[in-house]
Design a protein that fits this description.
Blueprint: H1 2-9, H2 19-26, H3 34-38, H4 42-49, H5 51-59, E1 65-72, H6 81-91, E2 99-105, E3 110-113, E4 129-134, E5 140-145, E6 159-163, E7 168-171, E8 184-188, E9 191-195, E10 208-212, E11 217-221, E12 232-236, E13 239-243, E14 257-264, E15 270-275, E16 278-283, E17 291-295, E18 302-309, E19 313-319, E20 327-332, E21 342-345, E22 354-361
Antiparallel strand pairs: 1-2, 1-22, 2-3, 4-5, 5-6, 6-7, 8-9, 9-10, 10-11, 12-13, 14-15, 15-16, 16-17, 18-19, 19-20, 20-21
């Protein structure tokens, strides 16, 4: 009886450990190690693919906010994981305009490159857009849409989907309609929305589309009331919001703003963006409009990317000049407390220009 009880109390997940302890070990795996963990055994694969896995990570406070960035590949890469992926890109005939997907855990300061795209030069399209999607059973994916071919600079209708469990990219159904550039993109409840931008004749567009990664299918949406070129897409309160762009008769934004930097705080309807060298914020329904949070350090004001992460924290990634190395700053926006920046220079192999970014939790 004793041996039967001991056998039932143990888990196949990790031999010799009770199931609860083994599961506690697995939910502590880093976001960049999930594909390797999934390949260890059938039991581990089932565990990390279970909807309970993500819920347990969140319940234990182990889910990490991660910024996914389309980042320029530095010309000289130090030995390590980044060099491995850079070498793969070069072997595929990568161009000088080489962009890759990079992940950053801004709280722990961990950086990790994703594999290069299969069957291409290895570079992501120039000026592509990226959105993070929670799919069936909470499966985390990144969806890269559109952009320009890095060799010919011709607009593309390409779609690439990265699955964090398999650790691999796949081609998605191409984006229908005219090949658009500089459009708004955001993910809302597992669907990627696209709106505006301009066509190959530089005509601003008002059309909108929705992409379902689970079905790998596109659907047309009603047109916007106005054409919007170079707008910003946001998910606010479960809605797809298109901010900025032109031509615009009336705008939520004031002169001197940078709508490209606009982002939304997770679990709230507070928006942040950069304006005249400052980080500003606006709460939903706030009659006072935008308020200044803090002045952005001078070495991060150029070509900046802004991401709001849980805990009232805001991450700004930018440089002091065009072509300069990227620097990461983070502050906590709390009522009644003075905001201050914490600086974390990017490692040399992750110092390239950030072209697009989105936030996800893993």
């Amino acid at each position: 009886m004793s041996s039967c009880f001991e056998a039932s109390a143990m888990s196949d997940l990790i031999p010799g450990l009770p199931e609860e302890v083994a599961r506690e070990c697995l939910i502590r795996v880093g976001f960049d190690q999930l594909p390797a963990v999934r390949r260890i055994s059938r039991q581990w694969k089932e565990e990390v693919e279970s909807p309970d896995y993500g819920r347990l990570r969140r319940a234990e406070g182990l889910a990490r906010p991660v910024v996914a960035m389309v980042q320029a590949q530095p010309e000289h890469v130090e030995p390590g994981p980044a060099q491995k992926h850079a070498s793969a890109s070069a072997a595929n005939g990568g161009s000088a305009n080489n962009y890759r997907m990079v992940l950053l855990d801004p709280v722990e300061g961990r950086w990790a490159p994703l594999p290069v795209l299969p069957g291409t030069t290895g570079s992501l399209p120039l000026f592509c857009q990226v959105a993070a999607v929670d799919g069936a059973q909470g499966r985390k994916r990144l969806v890269v849409v559109g952009g320009w071919d890095p060799e010919s600079w011709a607009p593309t209708d390409s779609v690439y989907v990265y699955d964090f469990l398999t650790g691999a990219w796949r081609r998605g159904a191409p984006m229908p309609g005219p090949r658009r550039s500089f459009f708004a993109t955001a993910a809302v409840r597992g669907v990627v929305y696209v709106a505006g931008g301009h066509d190959e004749e530089k005509n601003a567009l008002r059309s909108a589309l929705a992409y379902d990664p689970d079905a790998d299918a596109w659907a047309a949406l009603p047109d916007m009331a106005e054409e919007r070129d170079e707008p910003r897409g946001l998910c606010v309160g479960g809605r797809f919001l298109v901010v900025g762009g032109y031509p615009t008769q009336e705008s939520l934004l004031e002169d001197g703003t940078c709508p490209r930097t606009c982002c939304v705080a997770p679990g709230a309807e507070r928006m942040y963006m950069l304006r005249d060298g400052n980080l500003v914020a606006r709460d939903a329904g706030a009659s006072a409009g935008w308020r200044t949070v803090a002045s952005v350090p001078e070495d991060a004001r150029t070509a900046s990317t802004v991401s709001a992460i849980p805990g009232g924290r805001v991450v700004v990634i930018g440089s002091g000049c065009h072509g300069g190395d990227q620097t990461v700053y983070m502050l906590r926006d709390e009522a009644g407390k003075a905001a201050s920046w914490a600086r974390a220079p990017a490692p040399p192999e992750f110092s390239g220009h950030v072209q697009a970014a989105c936030l996800l939790e893993i």
